[in-house]
Amino acid sequence: MADSWYVYGTIEDHAEIIDEKYDAVIVSEVLEHVDAIDLFINTCANIIKPGGSFFITTINKTTFSWVGAIAIAEYALCLLPPGTHD
Q: Which among 63, 62, 59 has a CA at the least distance from the CA of 80?
Protein backbone atom coordinates (compact mmCIF):
# COMPACT_ATOMS: atom_id res chain seq x y z
CA MET A 1 0.00 0.00 0.00
CA ALA A 2 1.14 3.54 -0.62
CA ASP A 3 2.61 5.74 2.11
CA SER A 4 0.24 8.63 1.39
CA TRP A 5 -3.48 9.14 0.92
CA TYR A 6 -3.06 10.14 -2.71
CA VAL A 7 -1.61 7.83 -5.33
CA TYR A 8 -0.99 8.78 -8.96
CA GLY A 9 -1.74 5.98 -11.40
CA THR A 10 -4.47 3.79 -12.80
CA ILE A 11 -6.93 1.77 -10.78
CA GLU A 12 -5.87 -1.30 -12.75
CA ASP A 13 -2.24 -0.90 -11.62
CA HIS A 14 -3.32 -0.12 -8.05
CA ALA A 15 -5.53 -3.23 -7.90
CA GLU A 16 -2.49 -5.38 -8.65
CA ILE A 17 -0.45 -4.11 -5.68
CA ILE A 18 -2.96 -3.89 -2.83
CA ASP A 19 -2.98 -6.53 -0.12
CA GLU A 20 -6.50 -5.93 1.17
CA LYS A 21 -9.79 -4.84 -0.35
CA TYR A 22 -11.47 -1.59 0.63
CA ASP A 23 -14.64 -0.96 2.63
CA ALA A 24 -15.60 1.73 0.13
CA VAL A 25 -14.46 3.16 -3.18
CA ILE A 26 -15.36 6.72 -4.17
CA VAL A 27 -15.04 7.78 -7.80
CA SER A 28 -15.72 11.51 -7.89
CA GLU A 29 -15.58 13.57 -11.08
CA VAL A 30 -13.35 10.98 -12.80
CA LEU A 31 -15.63 8.96 -15.07
CA GLU A 32 -15.78 11.60 -17.78
CA HIS A 33 -11.98 11.27 -18.17
CA VAL A 34 -11.85 7.46 -18.48
CA ASP A 35 -11.46 5.76 -21.87
CA ALA A 36 -12.41 2.19 -20.88
CA ILE A 37 -15.34 2.80 -18.53
CA ASP A 38 -16.40 -0.87 -18.23
CA LEU A 39 -12.86 -1.94 -17.27
CA PHE A 40 -12.56 0.95 -14.84
CA ILE A 41 -15.86 0.21 -13.06
CA ASN A 42 -15.22 -3.55 -12.94
CA THR A 43 -11.77 -3.00 -11.45
CA CYS A 44 -13.18 -0.62 -8.84
CA ALA A 45 -15.88 -3.14 -7.94
CA ASN A 46 -13.32 -5.94 -7.63
CA ILE A 47 -11.31 -4.11 -4.95
CA ILE A 48 -14.29 -3.63 -2.62
CA LYS A 49 -14.91 -5.99 0.30
CA PRO A 50 -18.16 -7.97 0.22
CA GLY A 51 -20.90 -5.69 1.52
CA GLY A 52 -18.77 -2.61 0.83
CA SER A 53 -19.91 0.58 -0.83
CA PHE A 54 -19.22 2.08 -4.25
CA PHE A 55 -19.99 5.76 -4.86
CA ILE A 56 -19.76 7.45 -8.26
CA THR A 57 -20.30 11.13 -9.00
CA THR A 58 -19.97 12.80 -12.38
CA ILE A 59 -21.11 15.84 -14.27
CA ASN A 60 -24.68 15.65 -15.56
CA LYS A 61 -25.26 15.81 -19.30
CA THR A 62 -27.45 18.89 -19.11
CA THR A 63 -27.25 22.34 -20.66
CA PHE A 64 -26.65 23.85 -17.21
CA SER A 65 -23.70 21.51 -16.58
CA TRP A 66 -22.28 22.19 -20.04
CA VAL A 67 -22.38 25.93 -19.40
CA GLY A 68 -20.72 25.59 -16.00
CA ALA A 69 -18.14 22.88 -16.67
CA ILE A 70 -17.23 23.60 -20.26
CA ALA A 71 -18.21 27.09 -21.36
CA ILE A 72 -17.29 28.86 -18.12
CA ALA A 73 -14.61 26.67 -16.46
CA GLU A 74 -12.75 25.68 -19.63
CA TYR A 75 -13.19 28.62 -21.99
CA ALA A 76 -14.24 31.74 -20.08
CA LEU A 77 -12.15 31.36 -16.89
CA CYS A 78 -9.50 28.96 -18.28
CA LEU A 79 -9.56 26.93 -15.05
CA LEU A 80 -9.23 23.70 -17.05
CA PRO A 81 -7.66 22.91 -20.40
CA PRO A 82 -10.14 23.15 -23.30
CA GLY A 83 -11.54 19.73 -24.12
CA THR A 84 -11.25 18.38 -20.55
CA HIS A 85 -14.94 17.52 -20.43
CA ASP A 86 -15.52 16.48 -24.04
A: 59
pLDDT in tens, 31-41: 878 889 999 99
Q: Strands, DSSP E only, in 34-74?
A: 48-57
Q: Are 11 and 17 in contact (CB under 8 A)?
A: no
Three-state secondary structure along 51-78? EEEEEEECCCCCHHHHHHHHHHHHHHCC
Cβ–Cβ under 8 Å, residues 22 and 46: no
For 43-72, what is each residue's pLDDT tens digit? Answer: 999 999 999 999 999 888 888 888 887 888
Q: What is the pTM of this model?
A: 0.71
